[in-house]
């Protein structure tokens, strides 16, 4: 099985926006949408990452409203102060 780069996968998902502005892709065992990023939700994100790690991997895309799936974006500053140890 060929390995697909995450950049390619994410760009393909983002490009699948219909005329109504909704993302056509649905969440799956490889894809999770989050409306926002908040350090207080790290436990939730860690559970999702653990589930991906125990499967075939996966991608979390932040900045997508849940229902309907509308790309709303997220400010870069949300990620600037994360300390990775």
Biggest sheet details:
2 strands, parallel
Q: What is the approximate shape?
A: globular
Compute the average pLDDT. Answer: 83
As a percent range, the share of strand residues is 5-15%
Order of helices and strands: HEHEEEH
Helical residue percent band: 25-40%
Distance between the termini: 32 Å
Radius of gyration: 14 Å
Main structural class: alpha+beta
By DSSP, the count of extended strands is 4
Strands in their spatial order, largest beta sheet: 1-2
Describe this structure in words.
This protein has one domain. Helix content is 29%, strand content 14%. It contains three helices and four strands, in the order H-E-H-E-E-E-H. It has helices at 6-14, 42-53, 77-80; strands at 31-34, 59-62, 64-65, 70-71. Strands 1-2 form a two-stranded parallel ribbon. Strands 3-4 form a two-stranded antiparallel sheet.
In short:
The chain has 85 residues and is α+β, with helices and mostly antiparallel strands. It is 29% helix and 14% strand.
């Amino acid at each position: 099985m060929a390995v697909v780069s995450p950049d390619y996968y994410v760009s393909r998902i983002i490009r699948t926006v219909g005329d109504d502005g909704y993302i056509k892709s649905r969440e799956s065992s490889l894809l999770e949408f989050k409306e926002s990023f908040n350090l207080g939700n790290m436990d939730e994100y860690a559970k999702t990452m653990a589930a991906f790690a125990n499967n075939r991997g996966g991608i979390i895309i932040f900045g997508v409203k849940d229902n309907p799936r509308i790309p709303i974006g997220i400010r870069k500053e949300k990620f600037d102060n994360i300390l990775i140890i």
